Amino acid sequence: MWKSALLLVFAMSMATAEGQHPVLAIGAQAPDFALPGVDGRIHKLIDYASSPVLVVVFTSNHCPIAQMYEQRILQLTEDYKRKGVGVVAIQPNGPHAILIEELDSPDMSESLPEMKLRAQCKHLDYPYLYDGETKQVSRA
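Structure (tokenized):
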């Protein structure tokens, strides 16, 4: 398992939740997960056990700012994969996360099918995972 895994959390966009979110200490074991990806697979934390570092990016499918960061995530993935760094992006919003005042900007919603469309259209080849039904992993 990961004895000295460093978990980096780069929060770009997260759904608002009640209460305090737990904060993981640097070097802490990441909470286990099993999430569907845009590639049709279920991705589990154990799948990334060979990476000494796992970068977890919380992002959004509809947020214009998160969309601007997609190419940066691609570049991060490319720049660090030779060093063994794993990268996964987790989308924590459900399909109804778009607020009425945001209807003028999004080109897609937060559903897994629309995440698949965005990944295909934008050539996102990093693991893009959906946690919008329960938000359990994102909250952990």
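The first helix runs from residue 64 to 81. Confidence is low (pLDDT under 50) at residues 1-17.
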